[in-house]
Design brief:
The complex is a heterotrimer of chains A (96), B (325) and C (96). Chain A is an all-alpha fold. Chain A is 84% helix and 0% strand. Chain A has three helices and no strands. The longest helix of chain A has 36 residues. Chain A is elongated and about 65 Å long. Chain A starts with a helix and ends with a helix. Chain B is 68% helix and 0% strand. Chain B folds into two domains: 124 residues; 193 residues, no CATH class. Helix content of chain C is 86%, strand content 0%. The radius of gyration of chain C is 16 Å and the shape is elongated. Classes of the chains: A mainly alpha (96), B mainly alpha (325), C mainly alpha (96). At the A-B interface, helix 1, helix 2 and helix 3 of A face helix 1, helix 2, helix 3, helix 4 and helix 5 of B.
Chain lengths: 96, 325, 96
């Protein structure tokens, strides 16, 4: 039982939960959040792949990739949320 | 099995999975966002355990802090539009079209299969394949900085980072276009205690953000983490209404959005002009160039993230709140 | 000896956190829960910060821990105030 095994399985579980949420959730906000969970799960797997037994330093390349991924994900989330706000306003206007 | 930290790892992993399930299954949308923020912070803690403090900082500041703020802002806006602002619980603010149970079950089964496949692939993978660590360690003296992650981000794989800054720029352009003419939800009044907290915290956040940027050359930290912390300054300014975006400030904002990308690309072009490959900085100037790029990129990231939170492009208020209807 | 004392402080701080959490789960309404959380967690945090500061290697680390403690304490007090204020306003008990 080493941290990479524990957190690797944890990351896969989080990814799976996010995938189910992204496909099955009804609410738009929840679907965006589910996609974010998927990205965190993927980040877990990359960080686990970079991990080495403690005295050795971890591999910095996957770390840089995950940081890039986090920033790209926040950009995508912001655009998705703006689309949700727009859609909701349009629907509210239609009902009036 | 003798390591007592294994128990901690197991508990933390369980808590993370449980929070992910809870965030997606709780009915109240506000509770969903709060659970997600806790989930993100615990994930950051897990990444510290996996000796990835840079990633943990980025996840805590950007992936959890800024994303959480964006989600809360959107929820506030949706509740304003659907007229449920005064109610205690925020249940489903977007209209729901019923999906047949069979479709949902088929989707869930499909996701389960994919996850199972991933788990099999993960457990069957070789324990420690050859990574890039040896290559990076060998090339570190040529990078101009002492911290491997910063070296990879700003030197060895600088193309990635340049494109990442471009993605942020594209996001803010898209958000400004999508939100054009959208009416703003009224900002909640937060009271004097909040104002006092803002005044106390602002200078400290500026110092912490700059420190994170500076320390990135030799320790965990860097442009993205520092930029996200500085973006918190923007959020505080917007939320305490110490700064209200004016239409006249659009030019400055646009300049700040482009600043990082432009400086990054310009340095690459200048280096390439000197008979080298685009990001092959001359060794004696490497540290200066990296710090220059990082500093300007940090300003861009901070302003862009704050603009993404603010959403709508600041335009002159017209009567009725719509200017393109 | 110093390590033992630090461990005792951290354990005591954890006990306060557990007490606060029990209060959060068991108390009937939002004001009682806030009362339990803000007070118990504030003390728990201070004890843990003190314990960790005793174990810290350099004066710089102690200074950073003190800063973290100060800002978390101020932020959690502000959060408690904002939550109580929001609850009061949405319950319709006058506005201040």
């Amino acid at each position: 039982m080493t941290p990479d095994l524990i957190y690797g399985l944890c990351g896969i579980a989080v990814f799976g939960i996010g995938l189910v949420g992204a496909l099955c959730a009804q609410d738009r906000l929840r679907r965006v959040l589910a996609l974010k969970l998927c990205s965190v799960g993927a980040g877990f797997l990359l960080v686990v792949g970079a991990w080495r037994e403690p005295p050795a330093a971890p591999d910095p390349v996957p770390h840089a990739l995950v940081i890039t991924g986090i920033v790209v994900m926040v950009s995508a989330t912001a655009v998705a949320l703006a689309l949700i706000r727009r859609l909701q306003t349009l629907e509210a206007d239609d009902e009036r | 099995m003798t390591d007592p930290l294994v128990i901690f790892d197991l508990l933390l992993a369980l808590a993370i999975v449980a929070l992910a399930v809870a965030a997606l299954s709780v009915r109240d949308l506000f509770a969903m966002i709060v659970l997600f923020v806790i989930f993100g912070l615990l994930s950051a803690l897990a990444w510290v355990r996996l000796s990835a403090p840079d990633v943990a900082l980025a996840e805590a500041a950007i992936g959890t802090g800024v994303t959480g703020a964006l989600l809360l802002k959107t929820l506030h806006h949706l509740r304003f539009v659907s007229g449920t602002l005064g109610q205690q619980a925020a249940l489903g603010v977007t209209p729901v079209t019923p999906v047949p149970v069979g479709v949902t079950l088929a989707n869930a089964a499909f996701c389960g299969l994919i996850t199972l496949g991933l788990a099999v692939a993960f457990l069957g993978a070789p324990a420690a394949g050859p990574g890039f660590d040896a290559l990076v360690a060998e090339a570190m003296p040529l990078s101009g900085v002492d911290h491997p992650v910063t070296g990879v981000l700003l030197n060895f794989r600088a193309y990635d980072t340049l494109m990442e800054v471009v993605v942020l720029l594209a996001a803010v352009i898209a958000v400004w276009q999508i939100e054009r003419g959208l009416s703003d939800a009224p900002a909640p009044a937060m009271g004097e205690v909040w104002q006092g907290f803002g005044r106390l915290a602002l200078p400290a956040i500026v110092v912490v953000g700059t420190y994170l940027l500076w320390v990135g050359a030799e320790a965990p930290g860097g442009a993205f983490q520092g930029g996200a912390v500085l973006a918190a300054v923007g959020l505080l300014l917007l939320l305490t209404r110490a700064y209200v975006p004016q239409p006249g400030h659009r030019g400055i904002a646009r300049g700040a959005f482009v600043l990082g990308t432009a400086a990054f690309a310009l340095v690459a072009l200048l280096v390439a002009g000197g008979g080298r490959v685009a990001f092959e900085y001359p060794l004696e100037h490497a540290k200066t160039l990296i710090l220059l790029i990082e500093g300007l990129v940090t300003i861009s990231i901070a302003v862009t993230l704050a603009a993404l939170f603010h959403g709508r492009e600041p335009v002159a208020l017209t009567k009725g709140g719509r200017d393109d209807a | 000896m110093l390590e033992l004392f630090a461990a005792a402080l951290i354990a005591l701080g954890t006990a306060f956190f557990i007490a606060g959490t029990v209060g959060l789960l068991r108390f009937p309404d939002i004001y009682c829960r806030l009362h339990a959380l803000t007070k118990a967690d504030g003390l728990g945090l201070a004890l843990i910060a003190l314990g960790v500061a005793l174990l810290a290697g350099s004066a710089g680390e102690v200074f950073r821990i003190a800063l973290v403690w100060f800002f978390v304490a101020v932020a959690s007090a502000t959060c408690g105030h904002l939550i109580a204020r929001y609850a009061r306003q949405s319950a319709g008990v006058g506005d201040d």
